[in-house]
Structures are given as C-alpha cells and as structure tokens.
Automatic annotation (TrEMBL):
Keyword list, A-Z: GTP-binding, Lipoprotein, Membrane, Nucleotide-binding, Prenylation
Primary localisation category: membrane
Subcellular location: Cell membrane
GO CC list: plasma membrane
Portion of the parent chain present: 4 to 180 of 225
Source organism, top-level taxon: Eukaryota
UniProt keyword annotation of Phosphoprotein present: no
GO molecular function, one term: GTP binding
Organism: Solanum stoloniferum
Name listed for the protein in its UniProt record: Ras-related protein RABA5a
Topological relation to the membrane, as annotated: Lipid-anchor
Family: Belongs to the small GTPase superfamily. Rab family.
Length: 177
C-alpha cells in the first residue's frame, strides 16, 4: 500500500467537554476555521468537524466533537463520548466555578468511555488577565494529580489553540502507532 492509503487509517475522535460558555465552540472554530465569535451562544456548535493534522510527516485526521449546548443541562449523552480516544477538558480561567466542575467532567468522561482517553486540561480565555480567578499553578497541579496534559489557551487571540489539539492527537498517534 502507498503512504497515502495508510494515512486514511488514522481518524481519531476527540471530544470537547466542560461547562457552558468556557469557549469550547470557539476553540474549535479557531482551530478548524481560524474564526472567533465574540458573542456566541451555544447555537454555533456543529456536531463535529474533521481536521487534518501533520504528525511526524504523517497525515492524521481528527474528528472533533462539540456539544450543541447540552452541557448546560448536564445532558451530554453517551453517544457523544462513544469511541472517543481524546478529550479536551475545558474551563474558563476567569470563572472559578468552571474549574471546580472539572472533577465532575472527568468523572463523566471516565464513566462513558471504554478506554483510556488521552486528555488535556485546557484553561481557556488566558487573554482575560485582569479577570483571572484560577492561577496557572492551580491548573498545572490539578492536571498532574489527574495524569492529564495541561495548557492555557485563548480562542480570542489564538494563543496555544493549535498546540492544545496537536498535543492530544500526537499522543494518541504515539500510543496507537
Ligand atoms: P461554549 O459554550 O463552551 O461552546 O463557549 P463558546 O465558545 O460559545 O464561548 C462562550 C463565550 O466566551 C462567547 O462569548 C465567546 O466569544 C467567549 N470566548 C470564548 N473563548 C474566549 C477566549 O479565549 N477569550 C475571551 N475573552 N472570550 C472567549
Ligand atoms: Mg458551544
């Protein structure tokens, strides 16, 4: 088989989870389309978006799932998690409650997924420096305690958005290849 054909085999399902309005949909919009919605409601969510990534010279496809606002009612279904091999667990660094809820999301993820999902803890809205309610050290420390990758991002100014997705995809690739 050609290199081309082989790369078709790599399609990883990755889910975005975390409280409402932490920026999940905008992280995906920034990553997949380089767009940002300043006043987005949960309605911009698409079911999933497929994005090609280059990992060690190989083409890998990430199928990234976004909620359509179900998280508002804690009604994310098991179908959402099914088959996921990666997850971005997102909180908003300017809203402490969203960080305190991370444990519940992690539980939910572990309950619904049948394998070890490569997970990165994402502190989004790092641009909101003056409104910060969660320190970088706190995020890092939680991630270490739970065995997660960690990064702070801003969907607004783009910082670390691609790195967040790439970190997860790279690790999945390394595990499976
Ligand atoms: P979701 O409910 O988790 O999907 O959150 P959204 O992506 O819909 O974002 C909720 C709100 O936060 C919107 O008004 C976004 O414009 C805003 N937002 C998202 N990401 C950022 C960010 O990195 N920085 C700032 N300042 N606002 C953001
Ligand atoms: Mg959303």
């Amino acid at each position: 088989r050609s290199e081309e054909a082989q790369t078709e085999d790599y399609l990883f399902k990755i889910v975005l989870i975390g409280d409402s309005a932490v920026g999940k949909s905008n992280l995906l919009a920034r990553f997949a389309r380089d767009e940002f919605y300043p006043n987005s409601k949960s309605t911009i969510g698409v079911e999933f978006q497929t994005q090609k990534l280059d990992i060690n010279g190989k083409e890998v496809k990430a199928q990234i799932w976004d909620t359509a606002g179900q998280e508002r009612f804690r009604a994310v279904t098991s179908a959402y998690y099914r088959g996921a091999v990666g997850a971005l667990l997102v909180y908003d660094i300017s809203r402490r409650l969203t960080f305190e809820n991370i444990g519940r999301w992690l539980n939910e993820l572990q309950t619904h997924s049948d394998m070890n999902v490569v997970t990165i803890l994402v502190g989004n809205k790092s641009d909101l420096k003056h409104a910060r309610e969660v320190t970088t050290a706190e995020g890092k420390s939680l991630a270490e305690a739970q065995g997660l990758f960690f990064i702070e991002t801003s969907a607004l100014d783009s910082s670390n958005v691609a790195v967040a997705f790439q970190t997860v995809v790279k690790e999945i690739y390394n595990i499976l290849s």
